[in-house]
Amino acid sequence: MIIVLKPRTTEENILRVENMVRARGLETHTVRGEELTIIGCIGDTVRVDPRLFEVDKSVEKVMHVQEPYKLANRAFHPEDTIVDVAGVKVGGDHMALIAGPCSVESEEQVIEIAKAAKESGANMLRGGAFKPRTSPYSFQGMGLAGLDILCKAREVTGLPIVTELMSAEYLDLFDEKVDLIQIGARNMQNFDLLKQLGKTKKPILLKRGLNATYEEWIMSAEYIMSSGNPNVILCERGVRTFESYTRNTLDLQAIPVIRRLSHLPIIVDPSHAGGKWWLVEPMSKAAVAAGADGLMIEVHNNPECALCDGGQSLKPAKYDTLLKEIRQIAEVVGKKM
Amino acid sequence: MIIVLKPRTTEENILRVENMVRARGLETHTVRGEELTIIGCIGDTVRVDPRLFEVDKSVEKVMHVQEPYKLANRAFHPEDTIVDVAGVKVGGDHMALIAGPCSVESEEQVIEIAKAAKESGANMLRGGAFKPRTSPYSFQGMGLAGLDILCKAREVTGLPIVTELMSAEYLDLFDEKVDLIQIGARNMQNFDLLKQLGKTKKPILLKRGLNATYEEWIMSAEYIMSSGNPNVILCERGVRTFESYTRNTLDLQAIPVIRRLSHLPIIVDPSHAGGKWWLVEPMSKAAVAAGADGLMIEVHNNPECALCDGGQSLKPAKYDTLLKEIRQIAEVVGKKM
Amino acid sequence: MIIVLKPRTTEENILRVENMVRARGLETHTVRGEELTIIGCIGDTVRVDPRLFEVDKSVEKVMHVQEPYKLANRAFHPEDTIVDVAGVKVGGDHMALIAGPCSVESEEQVIEIAKAAKESGANMLRGGAFKPRTSPYSFQGMGLAGLDILCKAREVTGLPIVTELMSAEYLDLFDEKVDLIQIGARNMQNFDLLKQLGKTKKPILLKRGLNATYEEWIMSAEYIMSSGNPNVILCERGVRTFESYTRNTLDLQAIPVIRRLSHLPIIVDPSHAGGKWWLVEPMSKAAVAAGADGLMIEVHNNPECALCDGGQSLKPAKYDTLLKEIRQIAEVVGKKM
Amino acid sequence: MIIVLKPRTTEENILRVENMVRARGLETHTVRGEELTIIGCIGDTVRVDPRLFEVDKSVEKVMHVQEPYKLANRAFHPEDTIVDVAGVKVGGDHMALIAGPCSVESEEQVIEIAKAAKESGANMLRGGAFKPRTSPYSFQGMGLAGLDILCKAREVTGLPIVTELMSAEYLDLFDEKVDLIQIGARNMQNFDLLKQLGKTKKPILLKRGLNATYEEWIMSAEYIMSSGNPNVILCERGVRTFESYTRNTLDLQAIPVIRRLSHLPIIVDPSHAGGKWWLVEPMSKAAVAAGADGLMIEVHNNPECALCDGGQSLKPAKYDTLLKEIRQIAEVVGKKM
Quick one: residue D15, left, alpha or beta (phi over 0 = left, psi -120 to 50 = alpha)? Predict the structure, then answer.
């Protein structure tokens, strides 16, 4: 952390700021220039809020130098983390290929989709049982019954299941039944929920919030990790911009940036990002070419009748073709599929 | 709702789309033009997700015409809602003047601030007991002990208390002890929490999410109202933009827009919006001039030592001066203080 | 400027970076810490691009400490600049009250509006002769004929005239005929045009770009000032965000921020910001309460038939009422009208 | 275009709006519903500004149905446009591989880079002679001397040259000397300049503005095309978001979206988007996988000493490796290199 003092700060005031820093357990190194005096703060700066010093009348600004996270930081853990989801590896050169409907609608539906997706090469099944919906009047998901259908589909196909947890109330149940617990974009900073995720060791799929910076996203992973669960997979799903033609703007720079800042795996959800089925194919290819550790794609056997997000779902045949093309790109960038 | 069909859609396809609409309980009126065929959908469109139709191969786009909310909609409730917070009225020509520290730090602190704020004209006391913090390593608030301190300060000053609820787990306790339950920006779309707020009739202060549209914000109010609690106050606190000099960009157009779309009161939090104490005074004046139903302002007796957000807090003397100036502007725009 | 080096940078590499800095005419002060080595760069940093050093393999990041502008910087010019527009003062406690139609459509129209606006208290007349339009098929303005109509209206009413310059080609003509030359949001970083504005001493009204940071905006003023024209007035007109209900999001925090960073006057255009006539009144009041040095408002005698932006124009009678209310708020904040 | 009327609009008012529409040369088809009356407007709606009708007191909203552009619209020109840049084809399955330094600094520099880039497979040479810089104190480019150096490099290598035009003043000269005239992001809506580009038939490389929607971007192409120059290539270079770790957020969804809406070629500039050299490789691969018609990449023989943007430049050896990998991905997606 670096504290820049106002021009012409007196020695007395410099001393006061230095003491304030030391009171927080940090060491200080001060550079006195004619126009510019700066105090370098050295020590465990992650635990000190820079905003505390900004208040002082002699302080011009306070700048972070080191990332405010540790457990998720690649600097302290140089090799890639590989998360094991019920036997399916994610990270390193292993790709997560997650497919399934937006919402669980019926046993027949889910099993049919799961079989087809597995046939095409998917290695996990997704499906929403509890659905976060902007409107209280929209379909809110089948709830616990939906969860049971997913379990049934796992039994039939052997695919590990991924589904969204919206409240700590169901955490024990998810811990028992679900293989990869998804935390949705709108709950990325539901800090209370994040803290509770340390109670399980089940892998967590942490979606990026609609306007979350890379740092905030990694900090949310740090919440989960610091509460005791190191098994976090990040998922880029688009951020909100001024462009309204697409649902969100998919930020594929997130892949190399996260890879540089953190050792956690990062996958991409092109279905929610664009909100249009015809964007899924080019964006899936792009994500893999950029080095993504996996893809989460909505697949529906009858999108026209889907209760939710049919417009962004692929039919099983299209998904099959897509995976064939993806495989060739994965090879070029050194990923196994 | 209006469905625009693709150019040159056949009669057979038009019929199919019409049937799809009718199957959802809506009536259809179709206009056939040479270049353009549109289906007007009439009925209770609030309960129908327009995305359901976008999937059809003959559909070009689907456009909402009516707002997707009812209970919060001014069209169905033309007069202003006035929310009663333990005897303090908010809305109409009544202003909420909420003041207090970001975090509860000690009994002495809170009581001293509360007394001073009341003296200046504040009619509610705020203070964080549970704090949503981006970092797991930052001060997370005093928790239940903080809540008790707020209650003590209410006892001493008579000011109703406002504090943030982060998890449904504490809802019963808040229902018992708190006068105005705040839902923070990061939980604005924690739908599970919103639904639970119908269990109480205590007024809810619903902050706008950092990237929430007006419609999404009102929809979150609709969640609370449709679950059984009509006492919602909205709070604008800045949205996230590309500008990083200020913490967030305060959107004061929200005041007249919300007033037009909804009958709920809307107040403004200039402290969190700008993140700098010297922005609080001009933005408070601006908010009142624009017609805000209240102000929530951080006041701290010793900002230099605040455990959180000291840099955006006013000292009691500054708050006192501010309220005097605000009073003159309130008069011009017809508000009582 | 501060250069943060990578952890464990060798002395040899530190020396190389120091030399690189000195080669640009700056002095260096280096702090060596265990985890952190920083080089403070002292001297005329405004003329050195920090990105030049980011390239070095030993450099972690480079941070600006001082603002990259001088002539527009309040630090070097503490008192408010007051710009004189053909006798009308703008800045300090003097307010610019600019009114008129979006586009000049006819002599009758402009003169009728100008007379009414003057009657209500306006002290400048605006009107577009050359119009920047997103579509090549939209009305592009009357061009030179429009300019002559504005001059005629000035003759009749005595109001100085404000109109937009879109190309350096007409600069001499504008210099001769126009009192306040407007540079539109879309040309805020048309650097070639900005540089040419030093050829005149006529005051320039520089609108903020739709996604311009405060710093970029002030830098565009610096372009004009450094080319020889110190008479710049800034105009906030809304920035682009994810919210699409309003045309743009008016950023009134810009007023106190610009006032702190720069000595130049800042006025507000609430008509273009919201794009809806009913937002003009509350936002005008808010702007004045926040300390704006003026308002630029679209006034049209027949908005229903306007060739451009009728939907955001006030009728003369509404403008008259607005100015009466504004006057009371101006008094509270110490401005003359 | 669809006009939605306010609930309970009288027949008289409906008639007035219909007449207003017909006065603009459009036909009307009106649907009368109990809650909802809509007027479908049919005809050459591209030439009618929908904002003209929004002003009417009976109008709730006006919605565009058809895109407001024609010449650039794929609906009227289904096959891909292939632009010929001095013999190098761009579009269809032909890739533009543009490489070179941000700024022209010397003849030796440019020729050395050009030779190396050509060797690696580049088919055009880029280099800035006139540089748009945020600060008036930054290096503004070598100007005309820079242009001559580029011509020299073309003579030596045979590579067509691409460089940015900032002012119509130099258009004749560019027409004579340059092969592909670049219009920068900050001039994307410099409408005056766009209109002048019809004076030449030289291909134009139109960069996307930092906050331009797809529609606005295509409309700027439409300006050029409607003024008489059909040879436009679009270039995605990142948009501005709240994320500040990267310079901009590269929007690769732009590739399939533009391809759907327009027949014009679209290339990607990953160097400016991310602003970091290590993002260029993964984003180049992603862009090609998503179907881009080309890549514009900054290559510098000595980035540490570059006068501009060295931090985002690749060294020739890295560029060489990159093109080899790109070639494999291009093959998978059916592009020739």
Answer: alpha
Helices B107-120 and B144-157, packing angle to 10 deg: 40
Do residues B266 and B308 make contact, with C-beta atoms less than 8 angstroms apart?
no
What are the pLDDT digits (tens) for A15-61? 999 999 998 888 888 877 666 788 888 888 877 878 788 888 899 88
Please state, in angstroms and rounded to a whole number, the distance separating the CA atoms of residues B282 and B290: 12
What letter represents residue B313's amino acid? S
* Residue from B5, B9, B35 to probe the interface with D (highest D Cβ count within 10 Å): B35
Size of interface B-C (CB pairs under 8 A): 114
* Owner of token pair 């919210």: C243
Which residue type occupies A296?
Answer: M
**Per-residue pLDDT averaged across C231-240, rounded?**
98
Are D98 and D314 contacting, i.e. CB atoms less than 8 angstroms apart? no
Cα distance between residue A238 and residue A226, in whole Å? 26
Name the least confident of A104-118, A136-150, B253-267, D59-73. Answer: D59-73
Q: Which helix (H) or strand (E) holds C233?
A: strand C232-236
Q: How far is CA C280 from the centre of its chain?
A: 19
Q: What residues form DSSP beta bridges with B21? A: none
The answer to whether residue A106 scores a pLDDT higher than 80 is yes
Q: Environment class of residue B79 by beta-carbon count within 10 Å: exposed (0-12), middle (13-18) or buried (19+)?
A: exposed
Strands (E), B110-178: 124-126, 161-164
Nearest C-alpha neighbor of D247 from the set D311, D187, D190 = D311
Say yes or no for a CB contact (<8 Å) between C285 and B290: yes
* Distance of alpha carbon A196 from alpha carbon A223, whole angstroms: 9
Instruction: List A296's β-bridge partners, or say none.
Output: A98
Element (H, E) at C125: strand C124-126
Q: Summarize the confidence of residues D271-292 as an average pLDDT.
A: 96
Partner residues linked to A207 by β-bridges: A235
Q: What is the mean pLDDT of residues C166-180?
A: 97
Look at residues C1, C67, C54, C44 and name the one whose alpha carbon lies nearest to residue C217: C67
Q: Do C285 and B250 touch (CB under 8 A)?
A: no
Distance CA D242, CA D248 (A): 9
C-alpha span between A187 and D135 (Å, rounded): 41
Q: Which helix (H) or strand (E) holds D330?
A: helix D316-332
Please tell me the total number of residues recorded for chain D in this structure.
Answer: 337
Residues 6+ apart with CB under 8 A from D305: none
Q: Which of A152, A225, C5, A177 is nearest to A163 (CA)?
A: A177
pLDDT at B270: 98
Using a CB-CB cut-off of 8 Å, the residues of chain C touching B251 are 241, 243, 249-250
Nearest 5°: phi and psi at C206?
-100, 110
Q: Which amino acid is at A291?
A: G
Distance in angstroms (rounded) separating the CA atoms of residues A100 and A122: 9
CA distance B336 to B321: 17
Centroid of chain to Cα D18: 38
**A185 closest CA partner among A121, A249, A272:** A272
Q: What is the mean pLDDT of residues B116-127?
A: 98
Token pair recorded at residue D308: 């501009």
Q: Could you read off the pLDDT of D77-96 as tens digits, one per residue?
A: 999 999 999 999 999 999 99
What is the end-to-end Cα distance of chain D in Å, rounded? 43
D286 touches A289 (CB < 8 A): yes
Place of tokens 């985890």: C35
Q: Which residues of C touch B (CB under 8 A)?
A: 211, 213-215, 239, 241-246, 249-253, 255-257, 260, 273-274, 278-279, 282-283, 285-291, 325, 328-329, 332-333
pTM of the model: 0.95
ipTM of the complex in this document: 0.94
Residue C327, both tokens:
């006057």
Please tell me which chains touch C, using 3 or more CB pairs under 8 Å as the contact test: A, B, D
